[in-house]
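Hi everyone,

Forwarding the result from last night's run.
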Amino acid sequence: MGSELTISLPAARLLLLNAQGLLLRPARAARKAEVLAAIRRMGALQIDTIHVVARSPYLTLFSRLGAYEPRWLNELHAAGALFEYWAHAACFLPAEDWPLYRGLMLAAQRERGGYWPFILSWLEQHPETV
């Protein structure tokens, strides 16, 4: 017999906002290391070149960190703390997650049809992991 946890919808909303780093205002001015920490917390930072005010990655970070230097994202990428890959979309990913994606990169190269047919096949074959 399993145990269930039931929470109210308002509590679930607060939990989600907190997990994404959106619940509390930053206590102080952001530092470069906090850009990387925010991306680690999110798991991925989507790269979206469509913009009206600023590119999406910069707005996403601003919503979590407050005022910060946008160049820090580029510097972290250039230093190898982040890499770009297709997660759910084109994303910046923490360098320590490289091994999680490397197998997918290699397998997708070997498969006919590329990345998406391989991913869909893998998802169907591993429902317990998903």
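The longest strand covers residues 82-86.

Cheers,
N.
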